[in-house]
Specification:
By secondary structure, this protein is α/β, with parallel strands linked by helices. The chain has helices at 47-54, 86-102, 117-128, 156-163, 177-184, 194-199, 201-209, 242-252, 273-288, and strands at 26-32, 61-62, 67-68, 73-78, 105-111, 132-136, 166-172, 189-193, 215-220, 257-263.
Amino acid sequence: MLLNTYEPWKFAFSQETDFENIKKDSFGIIGVPFDSTTSYHSGSRLGPIVVREASYGFENYNINFNTSIDATFYDFGDVNVVPGNCEATCNIVEDTVNELLDLKLKPITIGGEHSASIGVIKALYEKYGNLTVVHLDAHRDLAFDFIGEKYSHATVMRRAHEFGVDLVQIGIRSSSVEEEEFVKSTYNIQTFKNKDVHRHMDAVEYYLTTIDTPVYLSIDMDVFDPAIAPAVGNPTPGGLFTSEVENVIQSLSYKNVVGMDVVETATDKLGENTAVCAAKIICDFLSLINKK
């Protein structure tokens, strides 16, 4: 075809959705346009749109890893959220992920605020019974509640931990005293702070290779330094570089990764740095995940 046309409401390189011929053990993308518990910079409800649009700026071939995006995946569009009701939205996300699992698909979620991950993680934990969440974030997100709300972008990993998952938190550089005390009181939360990643990336990579459970990868875009990804809900200086996050993904490509999310892209500007970076991370994941 001579015209270079594309569908900006679907992620680049996604397959046509034919429910009669869905390939098992492939991936299904959903967007969650929700940001009702945002506490600082709003706008992540537009993340799914701008991240998808940015994906069309990349080649199929990944020169850094000498791989191509040959993983099969489908983009099913956005879920119907309930503005102002985080718990109801998480339940809808959970139901949607269960539908993907029924189709033998692994979920890739584009956010939207980080609270959407609660529904995804719950569905996956109930399916696999044993799950490690590798959580890349500037913040722990382990508050028991936030301004009286148990379902929030600041409580997502506390809810996940209550389900029974193991946590590996990478890039952390902001926390509360209460969250730190909670981490000390548990046995199944491993932490690599931002300086650990900068100085000892090899130790991070080694630890990831020792995980022997199914893995869920959750990437809050504020894990990146604000100079790289400024349009996030809670930007925090001292963040990671793109190459460091790529190293994490490469290490996990040898594991049983059963889903991922990329959340907290908060901008309405097409081609904005954060959206481009988020799309690139998803492309990296799709180009690496089948390379054992």
